[in-house]
Amino acid sequence: MIFRNSDELYDILGTFFNQLKFDEEMGKQIRNSKIIVQWEYSDPPGIVTIDASGDDPDGGFYQVILGPTDIKPEVYMTMKADIAHEFWLGKVNLLAALSRRQIVAKGPIPKALKLLPAIKPAYSRYAEFLAERGRADPSV
């Protein structure tokens, strides 16, 4: 397992997503989609929601919610946390993972797929983010 526990998952993915929400290019494209996406992870468990339907209280382009929330997502995805980690490193093809059921998704998937070009710069940034935190070896 990449993440030792839920706290570490939230610390790494939560901090990363909270940094991205201020990115001028990616953030604007996500906000313009007005999408609400929720990922439920296992091994370790965790829930992360991106809400681009309204304003972010922190001044970002969308809101990041860590843990359970009453907000209803348009797109809901479940996967192992290791798959999410590999995805953000650019090593998981979303369509292939969906067809292999490594990722199970519900909702208007084409709407989420339209955001793939917008988030592509995040792949290299995730690797840089991990390196800055002393996690350059993605298997650690």
Q: Detail the poorly predicted runs.
A: none
Structural class: alpha+beta
Distance between the termini: 8 Å
The percent range for strand residues is 15-25%
* N to C succession of SSEs: HHEEEEHHEHH
Rg is 14 Å
CATH superfamily: SCP2 sterol-binding domain
| Outline | globular
Q: How is the CATH topology named?
A: Nonspecific Lipid-transfer Protein, Chain A
Strand arrangement, major sheet: 3-2-1-4-5
Q: Quaternary status of these chains?
A: single chain
- Name of the CATH first level: Alpha Beta
User: How many strands?
Assistant: 5
Q: Output mean pLDDT.
A: 93
Overview in brief:
The protein has 140 residues and is α+β, with helices and mostly antiparallel strands. It has helices spanning 6-20, 24-33, 81-88, 94-99, 109-113, 116-132, and strands spanning 36-42, 46-51, 63-66, 75-80, 103-106.
Spell out the blueprint of helices and strands.
Elements: H1 6-20, H2 24-33, E1 36-42, E2 46-51, E3 63-66, E4 75-80, H3 81-88, H4 94-99, E5 103-106, H5 109-113, H6 116-132
Parallel strand pairs: 1-4
Antiparallel strand pairs: 1-2, 2-3, 4-5
Helix pairs in contact: 2-6
Structural write-up:
By secondary structure, this protein is of the alpha+beta class. The chain has a single domain (6-127), classed as 2-Layer Sandwich (Nonspecific Lipid-transfer Protein, Chain A), CATH 3.30.1050. It contains six helices and five strands; from the N terminus they run ααββββααβαα. The chain has helices at residues 6-20, 24-33, 81-88, 94-99, 109-113, 116-132; strands at 36-42, 46-51, 63-66, 75-80, 103-106. β1 (36-42) and β2 (46-51) form a beta hairpin. It is globular and about 35 Å long. The model has no long low-confidence stretch (mean pLDDT 93).
